[in-house]
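User: I'm curious whether this sequence folds into something compact or stays loose and floppy. Could you predict its structure so I can see for myself?
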Amino acid sequence: MGPRCAWTLLLLQVCVLQGCQSLSVSFPGQLPIYVVNGRTLTLQAQIEQSPGESISKVTWEHEAEGTRNPRRTVVAEFPSRGSGERVTVEKGGAVMKLSNYQRSDSGVYIVTVTEKSRGPVSANCSVYEYEAVHHVSVMVNVSHSILHCREAWGTDPVFSWMHEKVTVTDNVGKVSADGSTLHLSIPLCGHFTCVVSNKLGHSSATYTGVPCEGNTGGTAVAVVCLLLLLLVAGGLAFLLWRRHYRHYSNRPQRLQESYDDAI
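Assistant: Here's the prediction. I'll summarize afterward.
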């Protein structure tokens, strides 16, 4: 091995060693983050450092989204300060908490970690307001017997289906993986209701098809029974009227007979 190869190998080892020991910061878990209005936003950064490194400062910044000229605002610093009474930092600046979350607090949050002997490293995550379920609707594909449920902008919507106020089973149809589509195994009749819910509540919409055969038969039976009941009631009323009429029509003749007997 020549001197040039030896120096190259040494430089590679130094680069790998420094890379393994370099300061890093990230946000573990599922992103973006959604927060209910009025609740507390908690952001936790994962800071990794090698032995001997000393963190001098951790800075939290906020950048609003949807503005023409986005500007970063310092929310909190560790160990120096927090921004007002709503913001606190914990665990050496790795955790930032913001109480009474409002829509204006949505946007991008940037955490910057500064080490004494190295340059700063940063990570960011997007934060949005947790929205309630809105404007649920049901669309139908008659030719394929498919029902589609749609929702406007709710966060983490969960879909469920009911047929005639009973939860849909495999006998009625097959629900898609996300729950928003129902492939029917029965005729498109009766009432199909889609319920969309999340942690803030639920909303629903109903599609009404033609009456099902079973329901039509039951309705016909009810109508026939009602007609029979009316006929029986009318017959009884007629018999009572006739009896009452005979009673009063015979009364003058009886009075005349009594008067003749008296004479």
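Summary: The chain is about 25% helix and 35% strand. Residues 5-20 have pLDDT under 50 and may be disordered.
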